[in-house]
Design goal:
There is one protein chain. The chain is α+β, with helices and mostly antiparallel strands. Helix content is about 25%, strand content about 25%. Strand 12 and strand 13 form a beta hairpin.
Protein backbone atom coordinates (compact mmCIF):
# COMPACT_ATOMS: atom_id res chain seq x y z
CA UNK A 1 0.00 0.00 0.00
CA UNK A 2 1.13 3.51 -0.76
CA UNK A 3 1.47 4.45 2.89
CA UNK A 4 4.30 2.01 3.41
CA UNK A 5 5.74 1.99 -0.10
CA UNK A 6 7.72 5.13 0.63
CA UNK A 7 9.85 2.93 2.85
CA UNK A 8 11.48 1.38 -0.20
CA UNK A 9 13.91 4.17 0.46
CA UNK A 10 15.59 2.11 3.16
CA UNK A 11 16.05 -0.75 0.75
CA UNK A 12 17.82 1.42 -1.75
CA UNK A 13 19.89 3.10 0.91
CA UNK A 14 21.13 -0.33 1.86
CA UNK A 15 21.82 -0.97 -1.81
CA UNK A 16 23.82 2.25 -1.98
CA UNK A 17 26.10 0.98 0.75
CA UNK A 18 26.94 -2.17 -1.15
CA UNK A 19 27.13 -1.20 -4.80
CA UNK A 20 30.65 -0.87 -6.15
CA UNK A 21 30.44 -0.75 -9.94
CA UNK A 22 32.31 2.24 -11.27
CA UNK A 23 30.49 2.18 -14.60
CA UNK A 24 27.45 3.48 -12.68
CA UNK A 25 29.54 6.18 -11.05
CA UNK A 26 30.90 7.43 -14.31
CA UNK A 27 27.43 8.24 -15.60
CA UNK A 28 25.87 11.63 -14.79
CA UNK A 29 24.85 11.81 -11.17
CA UNK A 30 21.27 12.29 -12.35
CA UNK A 31 21.34 8.63 -13.33
CA UNK A 32 21.75 7.50 -9.71
CA UNK A 33 18.34 8.49 -8.41
CA UNK A 34 18.75 10.94 -5.56
CA UNK A 35 16.77 9.30 -2.74
CA UNK A 36 17.07 8.69 0.98
CA UNK A 37 18.46 7.08 4.14
CA UNK A 38 22.66 8.11 3.92
CA UNK A 39 24.98 5.49 2.93
CA UNK A 40 26.41 5.98 -0.50
CA UNK A 41 29.68 4.54 -1.67
CA UNK A 42 29.46 6.64 -4.79
CA UNK A 43 32.06 8.96 -3.35
CA UNK A 44 34.73 7.74 -5.68
CA UNK A 45 33.17 9.31 -8.74
CA UNK A 46 34.66 12.48 -10.16
CA UNK A 47 31.87 14.78 -11.30
CA UNK A 48 31.80 17.93 -13.38
CA UNK A 49 29.74 21.05 -12.72
CA UNK A 50 26.81 19.86 -14.83
CA UNK A 51 26.69 16.57 -12.96
CA UNK A 52 26.86 18.39 -9.64
CA UNK A 53 23.76 20.33 -10.66
CA UNK A 54 22.03 17.13 -11.71
CA UNK A 55 23.03 15.60 -8.40
CA UNK A 56 20.02 17.19 -6.76
CA UNK A 57 17.54 16.15 -9.38
CA UNK A 58 17.17 12.37 -9.66
CA UNK A 59 18.35 9.26 -11.43
CA UNK A 60 17.32 5.69 -10.95
CA UNK A 61 19.10 3.68 -8.36
CA UNK A 62 16.74 4.84 -5.61
CA UNK A 63 12.98 4.59 -5.69
CA UNK A 64 10.88 7.72 -5.55
CA UNK A 65 8.76 6.10 -2.88
CA UNK A 66 11.54 7.14 -0.58
CA UNK A 67 13.01 9.97 -2.62
CA UNK A 68 15.11 12.25 -0.62
CA UNK A 69 18.41 11.51 0.98
CA UNK A 70 21.00 9.73 -1.05
CA UNK A 71 21.70 12.70 -3.28
CA UNK A 72 23.50 14.47 -0.47
CA UNK A 73 25.64 11.44 0.21
CA UNK A 74 26.72 11.55 -3.38
CA UNK A 75 27.71 15.14 -2.81
CA UNK A 76 29.71 14.24 0.28
CA UNK A 77 31.24 11.37 -1.62
CA UNK A 78 32.16 13.64 -4.46
CA UNK A 79 34.08 15.80 -2.01
CA UNK A 80 36.22 12.77 -1.17
CA UNK A 81 36.74 12.15 -4.86
CA UNK A 82 37.88 15.68 -5.64
CA UNK A 83 40.80 15.27 -3.26
CA UNK A 84 41.47 11.58 -3.72
CA UNK A 85 41.72 9.76 -7.03
CA UNK A 86 39.95 6.42 -6.74
CA UNK A 87 40.52 3.23 -8.72
CA UNK A 88 37.96 1.97 -11.19
CA UNK A 89 36.48 -0.57 -8.78
CA UNK A 90 35.81 -0.81 -5.05
CA UNK A 91 34.88 -4.48 -5.10
CA UNK A 92 36.81 -6.43 -2.51
CA UNK A 93 38.93 -3.42 -1.56
CA UNK A 94 39.52 -1.92 1.85
CA UNK A 95 39.32 1.79 2.61
CA UNK A 96 43.10 2.29 2.62
CA UNK A 97 43.35 0.65 -0.81
CA UNK A 98 40.98 3.21 -2.27
CA UNK A 99 41.56 6.43 -0.32
CA UNK A 100 44.73 8.18 0.72
CA UNK A 101 45.86 8.63 4.32
CA UNK A 102 43.43 6.20 5.93
CA UNK A 103 44.89 5.43 9.34
CA UNK A 104 42.51 4.20 12.05
CA UNK A 105 39.79 2.91 9.71
CA UNK A 106 42.11 0.55 7.89
CA UNK A 107 40.57 -2.78 7.04
CA UNK A 108 36.95 -1.66 6.69
CA UNK A 109 35.34 -2.21 3.28
CA UNK A 110 35.91 0.77 1.00
CA UNK A 111 32.19 1.12 0.38
CA UNK A 112 31.64 1.59 4.13
CA UNK A 113 33.76 4.73 4.45
CA UNK A 114 31.07 7.22 3.44
CA UNK A 115 28.32 5.67 5.59
CA UNK A 116 30.78 5.76 8.47
CA UNK A 117 31.28 9.48 7.89
CA UNK A 118 27.49 9.96 8.04
CA UNK A 119 27.43 8.38 11.50
CA UNK A 120 30.11 10.83 12.65
CA UNK A 121 28.13 13.71 11.14
CA UNK A 122 24.90 12.78 12.89
CA UNK A 123 26.55 11.92 16.21
CA UNK A 124 28.38 15.24 16.51
CA UNK A 125 25.91 17.46 14.67
CA UNK A 126 28.58 18.67 12.26
CA UNK A 127 29.42 18.59 8.56
CA UNK A 128 32.39 17.30 6.56
CA UNK A 129 34.46 20.43 7.01
CA UNK A 130 34.42 20.24 10.78
CA UNK A 131 37.35 17.84 10.33
CA UNK A 132 38.27 18.09 6.66
CA UNK A 133 39.65 20.66 4.24
CA UNK A 134 38.89 20.55 0.51
CA UNK A 135 41.51 17.82 0.08
CA UNK A 136 40.08 15.19 2.40
CA UNK A 137 43.38 13.31 2.60
CA UNK A 138 45.14 16.16 4.40
CA UNK A 139 45.46 16.47 8.18
CA UNK A 140 45.32 20.26 8.36
CA UNK A 141 42.74 20.40 11.17
CA UNK A 142 43.27 19.42 14.78
CA UNK A 143 39.70 18.10 14.89
CA UNK A 144 40.67 15.37 12.43
CA UNK A 145 43.60 14.33 14.64
CA UNK A 146 41.26 14.27 17.66
CA UNK A 147 38.70 12.24 15.71
CA UNK A 148 41.28 9.53 15.03
CA UNK A 149 42.05 9.30 18.76
CA UNK A 150 38.34 8.97 19.57
CA UNK A 151 37.80 6.30 16.90
CA UNK A 152 40.71 4.32 18.34
CA UNK A 153 39.29 4.64 21.87
CA UNK A 154 35.77 3.57 20.90
CA UNK A 155 37.07 0.68 18.82
CA UNK A 156 39.17 -0.57 21.74
CA UNK A 157 36.15 -0.46 24.09
CA UNK A 158 34.00 -2.43 21.67
CA UNK A 159 36.69 -5.01 20.98
CA UNK A 160 37.47 -5.60 24.64
CA UNK A 161 33.93 -5.54 26.00
CA UNK A 162 31.46 -6.28 23.20
CA UNK A 163 33.17 -8.69 20.83
CA UNK A 164 33.85 -5.95 18.32
CA UNK A 165 30.18 -5.02 17.81
CA UNK A 166 29.53 -1.26 17.55
CA UNK A 167 27.69 -1.05 20.88
CA UNK A 168 29.52 2.03 22.13
CA UNK A 169 29.50 4.74 19.45
CA UNK A 170 30.27 8.43 19.09
CA UNK A 171 26.64 9.12 19.85
CA UNK A 172 26.93 7.36 23.21
CA UNK A 173 28.57 10.54 24.56
CA UNK A 174 28.03 13.29 21.99
CA UNK A 175 24.28 13.11 21.35
CA UNK A 176 24.45 15.52 18.42
CA UNK A 177 26.99 17.87 20.02
CA UNK A 178 30.63 18.32 19.00
CA UNK A 179 31.46 18.46 22.72
CA UNK A 180 30.61 15.28 24.69
CA UNK A 181 27.65 15.71 27.01
CA UNK A 182 28.81 14.22 30.31
CA UNK A 183 26.78 16.17 32.88
CA UNK A 184 23.47 14.71 33.96
CA UNK A 185 20.41 16.80 33.18
CA UNK A 186 18.48 17.87 36.27
CA UNK A 187 14.77 17.09 36.11
CA UNK A 188 12.15 19.77 36.54
CA UNK A 189 10.90 19.81 40.12
CA UNK A 190 7.33 20.20 38.94
CA UNK A 191 7.64 16.90 37.13
CA UNK A 192 9.06 15.27 40.24
CA UNK A 193 6.16 16.50 42.39
CA UNK A 194 3.42 15.89 39.86
CA UNK A 195 0.73 13.48 40.94
CA UNK A 196 1.26 10.07 39.38
CA UNK A 197 -1.75 8.73 37.55
CA UNK A 198 -2.10 5.01 37.02
CA UNK A 199 -1.13 4.07 33.50
CA UNK A 200 -3.64 1.98 31.56
CA UNK A 201 -2.44 -1.29 30.13
CA UNK A 202 -1.02 -1.08 26.65
CA UNK A 203 -3.04 -2.54 23.79
CA UNK A 204 -1.73 -5.63 22.07
CA UNK A 205 0.02 -5.47 18.70
CA UNK A 206 -3.00 -7.15 17.11
CA UNK A 207 -5.30 -4.46 18.51
CA UNK A 208 -3.04 -1.67 17.26
CA UNK A 209 -2.84 -3.14 13.75
CA UNK A 210 -6.60 -3.71 13.64
CA UNK A 211 -7.23 -0.08 14.63
CA UNK A 212 -4.76 1.05 11.97
CA UNK A 213 -6.62 -0.83 9.23
CA UNK A 214 -9.95 0.60 10.40
CA UNK A 215 -8.47 4.12 10.49
CA UNK A 216 -7.40 3.72 6.86
CA UNK A 217 -10.96 2.83 5.89
CA UNK A 218 -11.29 -0.85 6.75
CA UNK A 219 -10.15 -4.00 4.99
CA UNK A 220 -13.20 -4.22 2.75
CA UNK A 221 -12.71 -0.71 1.35
CA UNK A 222 -8.96 -1.18 1.00
CA UNK A 223 -9.35 -4.42 -0.98
CA UNK A 224 -11.83 -2.79 -3.37
CA UNK A 225 -8.90 -0.78 -4.69
CA UNK A 226 -6.69 -2.81 -7.02
CA UNK A 227 -4.61 -0.14 -8.74
CA UNK A 228 -3.48 3.41 -8.12
CA UNK A 229 -1.73 6.31 -9.82
CA UNK A 230 -0.15 8.83 -7.46
CA UNK A 231 1.31 12.17 -8.55
CA UNK A 232 3.68 13.90 -6.13
CA UNK A 233 6.22 16.68 -5.84
CA UNK A 234 9.33 16.23 -3.75
CA UNK A 235 11.54 18.88 -2.25
CA UNK A 236 14.98 17.60 -1.33
CA UNK A 237 16.42 19.67 1.50
CA UNK A 238 19.84 21.26 1.98
CA UNK A 239 21.96 23.09 4.52
CA UNK A 240 20.69 26.59 5.45
CA UNK A 241 23.51 28.22 3.47
CA UNK A 242 22.82 26.22 0.29
CA UNK A 243 19.90 26.90 -2.10
CA UNK A 244 17.27 24.21 -2.23
CA UNK A 245 17.52 21.88 -5.23
CA UNK A 246 14.80 22.04 -7.85
CA UNK A 247 11.44 20.42 -7.15
CA UNK A 248 11.01 16.87 -8.46
CA UNK A 249 7.84 15.80 -10.27
CA UNK A 250 7.03 12.11 -9.96
CA UNK A 251 4.32 9.63 -10.91
CA UNK A 252 3.93 6.26 -9.23
CA UNK A 253 1.87 3.44 -10.69
CA UNK A 254 0.78 0.60 -8.39
CA UNK A 255 -1.21 -2.55 -9.04
CA UNK A 256 -2.20 -5.49 -6.85
CA UNK A 257 -0.75 -7.71 -5.70
CA UNK A 258 2.77 -6.28 -5.86
CA UNK A 259 3.52 -4.39 -9.08
CA UNK A 260 4.90 -0.86 -8.97
CA UNK A 261 6.79 1.54 -11.20
CA UNK A 262 7.88 5.11 -10.60
CA UNK A 263 8.48 7.67 -13.33
CA UNK A 264 10.57 10.74 -12.46
CA UNK A 265 11.33 13.77 -14.59
CA UNK A 266 15.05 14.48 -14.50
CA UNK A 267 17.06 17.19 -16.28
CA UNK A 268 18.19 14.90 -19.09
CA UNK A 269 15.08 12.79 -19.57
CA UNK A 270 12.94 10.28 -17.71
CA UNK A 271 14.09 7.86 -15.01
CA UNK A 272 12.10 4.81 -13.93
CA UNK A 273 12.27 2.22 -11.20
CA UNK A 274 9.96 -0.45 -9.89
CA UNK A 275 9.16 -4.02 -8.94
CA UNK A 276 7.86 -6.36 -11.65
CA UNK A 277 6.74 -9.13 -9.31
CA UNK A 278 10.19 -10.70 -9.23
CA UNK A 279 12.89 -8.04 -9.29
CA UNK A 280 13.49 -4.55 -7.90
CA UNK A 281 14.94 -2.66 -10.87
CA UNK A 282 15.73 0.88 -11.99
CA UNK A 283 16.56 2.58 -15.27
CA UNK A 284 18.32 5.93 -15.50
CA UNK A 285 17.63 8.65 -18.04
CA UNK A 286 20.40 7.24 -20.25
CA UNK A 287 18.83 3.79 -20.40
CA UNK A 288 21.15 1.99 -17.95
CA UNK A 289 19.25 -0.66 -15.94
CA UNK A 290 20.25 -1.72 -12.43
CA UNK A 291 18.88 -4.47 -10.16
CA UNK A 292 18.84 -4.26 -6.38
CA UNK A 293 20.51 -7.09 -4.47
CA UNK A 294 20.49 -8.73 -1.06
CA UNK A 295 18.55 -6.98 1.67
CA UNK A 296 17.70 -4.17 -0.76
CA UNK A 297 15.86 -6.67 -2.96
CA UNK A 298 14.03 -8.12 0.07
CA UNK A 299 13.00 -4.73 1.41
CA UNK A 300 11.91 -3.58 -2.02
CA UNK A 301 9.73 -6.63 -2.50
CA UNK A 302 8.03 -6.05 0.86
CA UNK A 303 7.45 -2.39 0.08
CA UNK A 304 5.84 -3.24 -3.26
CA UNK A 305 3.02 -5.18 -1.55
CA UNK A 306 -0.12 -3.27 -2.59
CA UNK A 307 -1.89 -4.41 0.59
CA UNK A 308 1.07 -4.16 2.94
CA UNK A 309 -1.01 -2.37 5.56
CA UNK A 310 -3.19 -5.50 5.75
CA UNK A 311 -0.24 -7.88 5.83
CA UNK A 312 1.95 -6.39 8.56
CA UNK A 313 1.30 -9.25 10.97
CA UNK A 314 2.49 -11.77 8.37
CA UNK A 315 5.38 -9.56 7.29
CA UNK A 316 7.05 -9.53 10.71
CA UNK A 317 8.14 -12.62 12.60
CA UNK A 318 7.31 -10.91 15.89
CA UNK A 319 5.59 -7.68 16.96
CA UNK A 320 6.25 -6.14 20.39
CA UNK A 321 4.45 -3.12 21.85
CA UNK A 322 7.29 -1.20 23.47
CA UNK A 323 5.32 1.64 25.08
CA UNK A 324 4.29 5.19 24.26
CA UNK A 325 6.34 7.97 22.69
CA UNK A 326 5.68 11.42 21.30
CA UNK A 327 5.74 12.06 17.56
CA UNK A 328 5.63 15.81 17.40
CA UNK A 329 2.71 16.80 19.58
CA UNK A 330 0.93 13.48 19.19
CA UNK A 331 1.22 10.48 21.46
CA UNK A 332 1.96 7.21 19.72
CA UNK A 333 2.30 3.53 20.51
CA UNK A 334 5.75 2.25 19.58
CA UNK A 335 5.65 -1.20 18.01
CA UNK A 336 8.84 -3.09 17.18
CA UNK A 337 8.51 -5.26 14.11
CA UNK A 338 11.12 -8.03 13.87
CA UNK A 339 12.16 -9.32 10.47
CA UNK A 340 14.14 -12.38 9.41
CA UNK A 341 17.72 -11.48 8.45
CA UNK A 342 17.14 -7.74 8.85
CA UNK A 343 16.95 -5.06 11.52
CA UNK A 344 13.78 -4.55 13.54
CA UNK A 345 11.61 -1.69 12.32
CA UNK A 346 10.03 0.86 14.64
CA UNK A 347 6.40 1.73 13.92
CA UNK A 348 4.61 4.61 15.66
CA UNK A 349 0.80 4.54 15.67
CA UNK A 350 -1.31 7.47 16.86
CA UNK A 351 -2.96 6.49 20.14
CA UNK A 352 -6.10 8.43 19.18
CA UNK A 353 -6.61 7.97 15.45
CA UNK A 354 -4.72 4.69 15.07
CA UNK A 355 -2.91 5.95 11.96
CA UNK A 356 0.76 5.29 11.30
CA UNK A 357 2.72 8.45 12.11
CA UNK A 358 6.34 7.37 11.70
CA UNK A 359 8.46 4.42 10.63
CA UNK A 360 12.17 4.03 11.39
CA UNK A 361 14.47 1.62 9.58
CA UNK A 362 18.16 0.97 10.21
CA UNK A 363 21.33 0.26 8.27
CA UNK A 364 24.46 -1.00 10.03
CA UNK A 365 27.79 0.74 9.47
CA UNK A 366 31.27 0.06 10.81
CA UNK A 367 30.90 2.53 13.68
CA UNK A 368 27.22 2.22 14.54
CA UNK A 369 23.70 1.81 13.26
CA UNK A 370 22.30 4.57 11.06
CA UNK A 371 18.53 5.20 11.28
CA UNK A 372 16.22 6.68 8.69
CA UNK A 373 12.71 7.82 9.47
CA UNK A 374 9.61 8.47 7.38
CA UNK A 375 6.75 10.50 8.82
CA UNK A 376 3.20 10.30 7.47
CA UNK A 377 0.86 13.25 7.89
CA UNK A 378 -2.23 14.94 6.48
CA UNK A 379 -4.21 11.75 5.89
CA UNK A 380 -7.13 12.33 3.51
CA UNK A 381 -9.99 10.30 2.13
CA UNK A 382 -9.18 9.83 -1.55
CA UNK A 383 -12.82 9.37 -2.49
CA UNK A 384 -13.48 5.69 -1.87
CA UNK A 385 -13.38 5.65 1.92
CA UNK A 386 -9.64 4.87 2.01
CA UNK A 387 -7.25 7.34 3.62
CA UNK A 388 -3.72 8.04 2.44
CA UNK A 389 -1.07 10.46 3.76
CA UNK A 390 -0.65 13.54 1.57
CA UNK A 391 2.45 14.78 3.37
CA UNK A 392 5.52 12.57 3.81
CA UNK A 393 8.73 13.69 5.48
CA UNK A 394 12.00 11.83 5.04
CA UNK A 395 14.05 12.21 8.24
CA UNK A 396 17.80 11.67 8.27
CA UNK A 397 20.85 12.58 10.32
CA UNK A 398 21.38 15.75 8.26
CA UNK A 399 19.05 18.16 6.44
CA UNK A 400 21.06 17.46 3.29
CA UNK A 401 19.72 13.91 3.18
CA UNK A 402 16.14 14.72 4.08
CA UNK A 403 13.11 15.57 1.96
CA UNK A 404 9.48 16.65 2.01
CA UNK A 405 6.98 14.98 -0.32
CA UNK A 406 3.56 16.41 -1.17
CA UNK A 407 0.93 14.25 -2.84
CA UNK A 408 -0.83 16.25 -5.54
CA UNK A 409 -3.31 13.73 -6.92
CA UNK A 410 -4.46 10.16 -6.32
CA UNK A 411 -6.40 8.13 -8.91
CA UNK A 412 -7.67 4.72 -7.85
CA UNK A 413 -8.74 1.67 -9.85
CA UNK A 414 -7.17 3.07 -13.00
CA UNK A 415 -6.50 0.68 -15.88
CA UNK A 416 -2.77 -0.14 -15.99
CA UNK A 417 -1.42 -2.77 -18.35
CA UNK A 418 0.97 -5.22 -16.68
CA UNK A 419 3.51 -4.38 -19.36
CA UNK A 420 3.91 -1.00 -17.65
CA UNK A 421 5.73 -2.73 -14.78
CA UNK A 422 8.02 -4.95 -16.83
CA UNK A 423 11.72 -4.57 -16.07
CA UNK A 424 13.21 -2.23 -18.63
CA UNK A 425 15.97 -3.31 -20.99
CA UNK A 426 19.28 -1.47 -20.97
CA UNK A 427 19.71 0.79 -23.99
Amino acid sequence: MFIVNWELLSAYLFELTTRTKMEDLQKPISSLRCTMYLFSNYGVALINSKERNNLFMSGTLVSRRALGAAFSLMLAAALFARGQQAPLSLEGKTAEQVYNNIQVLQGIPADQLNPTMRVFEGSLGVGCFFCHVSDFSKDDKETKVSARKMITMVSAINKSSFGGLPIVTCNSCHHGSSIPIALLTLPEQADMLAEREPQPALPTADQILAKYVEALGGEQAIRKVTSRLITVTQQNLSLPTVPLPALLHVEQYEKAPNLTVTVTQVPDGIAEDGFDGNTVWSQDAHGHVTEAAGVAQTRGKRAADFYECLNLKQEYTRLVVQGKQKVGEREAYLVLGYLPDDFAERLFFDTQSGLLLRKITTVRTTVGDLPTGTEYDDYRDVGDGVKLPFLIRILAVSPTISATIHVQKVQENVVIDNAKFAKAESK
